[in-house]
């Protein structure tokens, strides 16, 4: 007679709780002596939010895995720039820019990995027909794209699967007119070859997964799915929901996930299905229903990625990224949530503290019309703002440092005049601190009340500066200047011996992607932001865990909602703010728990809203009781 241990290689543990401190294993049985139940740890499949795309994009192609994905091309219209050649790389947390493709295309076929990708076909015109279909083929090596031998037919919306040196292209739309095809081509790393195998029906807007000798495609023609064996296609199990425009697809021929897609140009509400090689079964829906999205078609069915695409409504393009995980843990993606509103409209506030004990003071009050620096302050308890003690003088567009009970504000403006004053706060009262050596506004700053740094800014009405100063709790001292001139940002984080500033203006009106790190003595170049940005904000208590938020960017001139996190080397996107904005007071708190408030929205209006940020969390699912009834 077989035992559980001989069948599973696991003993039935006798525990006083649902875990013993050992690694939790899928399917293991154990007896909980506290609640007298036989239990098991069972994996659960669910979507969670990942880092958003830098720009909302439809018709984007994708390949790779959940922790090393690639997204490229697509359509960010309407209007300029329309179809793009942009490439983005995902590391499991967020997106960063890669090398651009040789030409802009949308609805391309894709295969391979993040460091060995293949792009083929697509359209160089608007996404409503294949009149601009192309036979272009490009290979990506992890940093740059190179043109390769073309497809044998120009196709938009072809399916793709396999690797860079053993890929399959199938289906797609041919020119002229709207003519779908069921043909198949193989790529060997050098050239494409027509093969005899054909899909069970002609179709376009396809996705594929698996390998060249064991592939899968689904949708594109009602509910059908097709299996590929390296030479011929055969019918697989039918989807439960028709998806002529397919969703994110990844996994293998015998275990795959399809998420999203559309029928008749209408998203299917994020409906997702899991395939076992024979039957499709509905599973948890995506949060954002969309089609024309990219996917990590090299992922396993237990850990996939869907990103971008088109959704219903006036905001037709989405930057949303969602991760599918079938695991013993529940992953809650990073997110912004609405907090309590401030009392009135201000920009360029001086902020410090934590998410549940924050200070926001001064700034430029915008009663509409007019701009006036002010001395009023407010304090946040994690849900609402209340009036605090006024600062000794009006002050806006300076910096804030420290905690609610040991804070520092310095520099900025009083009316139209730059100031060099500093004020210290103990949670109730203000006292004068030491004066800065250079009066300035729109500078960066990081550190605490007794060990702070300020850098850059506008020392004069028209010139950016490089001046850097350190504060020891009583006096400011000039130290090593920044490598370049910078201003028009409240974007910096870290400590006196490990700080960073980023973005702003190198010259008046010129946005920059640059960041620079400070070690207490010298400045060195850090990783570049993903877009040139000015009037941006950000912060954090660590140089290696700093957040950049909002600002005026190339793609969002009126104001951006993009959030980026810095890991000490590079910037990656995270969840976007609900409201695009610029001229925000500095981000307060940490990259796991922080907030921003006020600023100017995309309509150029000062606002009173607060948003709270919570970083991604992972929690082990509760064990399931085995019921013998």
List keywords for this structure.
globular, Neuraminidase, five-stranded antiparallel sheet, eight-stranded mixed sheet, 1 helix, 629 residues, mainly beta, 68 strands, 3 domains
Secondary structure elements and pairings:
Elements: H1 4-8, E1 13-15, E2 29-32, E3 37-40, E4 44-49, E5 61-65, E6 68-72, E7 87-90, E8 95-97, E9 109-112, E10 117-120, E11 137-140, E12 145-147, E13 159-163, E14 166-170, E15 173-174, E16 179-180, E17 184-187, E18 192-195, E19 208-211, E20 214-218, E21 225-228, E22 233-235, E23 245-251, E24 256-263, E25 266-267, E26 272-275, E27 280-283, E28 294-295, E29 303-307, E30 321-327, E31 329-332, E32 335-338, E33 346-347, E34 350-354, E35 357-361, E36 364-365, E37 372-373, E38 377-380, E39 385-387, E40 399-403, E41 406-410, E42 413-414, E43 417-418, E44 422-425, E45 430-432, E46 444-448, E47 451-455, E48 468-471, E49 476-479, E50 489-495, E51 498-502, E52 505-507, E53 510-511, E54 515-518, E55 523-525, E56 533-534, E57 536-542, E58 545-549, E59 552-553, E60 563-566, E61 571-573, E62 581-582, E63 588-590, E64 593-597, E65 600-601, E66 610-614, E67 617-620, E68 624-625
Parallel strand pairs: 1-2, 50-57
Antiparallel strand pairs: 2-3, 3-68, 4-30, 5-6, 6-7, 7-8, 9-10, 10-11, 11-12, 13-14, 14-17, 15-16, 17-18, 19-20, 20-21, 21-22, 23-24, 24-25, 24-26, 26-27, 28-29, 29-30, 31-67, 32-66, 33-36, 34-35, 35-38, 36-37, 38-39, 40-41, 41-44, 42-43, 44-45, 46-47, 47-48, 48-49, 50-51, 51-54, 52-53, 54-55, ...
């Amino acid at each position: 007679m077989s035992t559980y241990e001989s069948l599973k290689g696991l003993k039935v543990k006798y525990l006083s709780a649902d875990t013993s401190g050992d690694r939790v294993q899928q399917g293991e049985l154990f007896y909980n002596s506290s609640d007298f139940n036989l239990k098991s740890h069972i994996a659960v499949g669910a979507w969670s939010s990942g880092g958003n795309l830098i720009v909302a994009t439809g018709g984007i192609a994708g390949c790779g895995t959940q922790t090393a994905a690639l997204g490229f091309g697509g359509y960010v219209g309407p209007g300029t720039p329309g179809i793009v050649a942009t490439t983005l790389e995902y590391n499991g947390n967020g997106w960063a820019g890669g090398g651009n493709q040789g030409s802009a295309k949308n609805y391309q076929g894709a295969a391979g990995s993040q460091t060995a990708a293949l792009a083929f076909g697509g359209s160089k015109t608007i996404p409503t027909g294949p009149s601009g279909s192309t036979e272009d083929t490009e290979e990506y090596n992890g940093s740059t794209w190179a043109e390769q031998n073309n497809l044998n037919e120009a196709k938009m919306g072809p399916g793709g699967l396999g690797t860079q040196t053993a890929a399959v292209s199938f289906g797609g739309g041919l020119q002229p007119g709207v003519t779908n095809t069921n043909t198949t081509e193989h790529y060997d790393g050098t050239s494409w070859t027509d093969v005899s195998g054909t899909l069970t029906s002609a179709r376009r807007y396809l996705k594929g997964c698996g390998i060249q000798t064991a592939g899968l495609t689904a949708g594109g023609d009602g509910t059908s799915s097709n299996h590929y064996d390296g030479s011929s296609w055969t019918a697989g199990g039918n989807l439960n929901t028709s998806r002529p425009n397919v969703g994110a697809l990844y996994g293998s021929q015998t275990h795959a996930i399809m998420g999203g897609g559309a029928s008749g140009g209408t998203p299917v509400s994020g409906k997702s299905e899991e395939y076992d090689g024979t039957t499709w079964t509905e599973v948890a829906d995506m949060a954002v229903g969309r089609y024309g999205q990219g996917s990590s078609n090299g992922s396993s069915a237990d850990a996939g990625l869907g990103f971008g695409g088109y959704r219903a409504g006036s905001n037709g393009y989405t930057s949303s990224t969602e991760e599918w995980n079938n695991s013993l843990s529940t992953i809650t993606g990073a997110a912004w949530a609405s907090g309590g509103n401030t009392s009135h409209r201000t920009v360029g506030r001086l902020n410090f503290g934590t998410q549940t004990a924050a200070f926001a003071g001064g700034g430029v009050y915008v009663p509409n019309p007019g701009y006036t620096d002010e001395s009023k302050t407010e304090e946040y308890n994690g849900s609402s703002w209340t009036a605090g003690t006024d600062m000794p003088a009006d002050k806006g567009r300076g910096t804030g440092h420290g905690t609610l009970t040991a804070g520092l504000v310095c520099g900025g403006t009083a009316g139209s005049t730059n100031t060099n004053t500093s004020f210290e706060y103990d949670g109730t009262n203000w006292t004068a601190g030491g004066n800065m050596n250079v009066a300035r506004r729109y500078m960066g700053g990081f550190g605490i009340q007794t060990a702070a740094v300020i850098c850059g800014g506008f020392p004069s009405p028209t010139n950016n500066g490089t001046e850097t100063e350190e504060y020891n709790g009583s006096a400011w001292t000039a130290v090593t200047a920044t490598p370049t001139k910078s201003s028009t940002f409240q974007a910096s984080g870290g400590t006196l011996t490990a700080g960073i500033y980023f973005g702003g203006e190198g010259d008046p009106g010129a946005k920059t992607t640059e960041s620079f790190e400070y070690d207490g003595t010298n400045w060195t170049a850090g990783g570049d932001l993903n877009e040139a940005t000015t009037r941006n904000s950000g912060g954090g208590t660590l140089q290696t865990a700093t957040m950049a938020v909002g600002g005026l960017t190339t793609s969002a001139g009126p104001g951006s909602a993009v959030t980026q996190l810095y890991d000490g080397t590079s910037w990656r996107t995270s969840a976007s703010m609900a409201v695009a904005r610029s001229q925000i007071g500095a981000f307060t708190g940490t990259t796991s728990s922080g907030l921003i408030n006020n600023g100017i929205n995309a309509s150029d209006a000062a606002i009173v809203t607060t948003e709270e940020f919570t970083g991604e969390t992972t929690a082990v699912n509760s064990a399931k009781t085995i019921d013998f009834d």
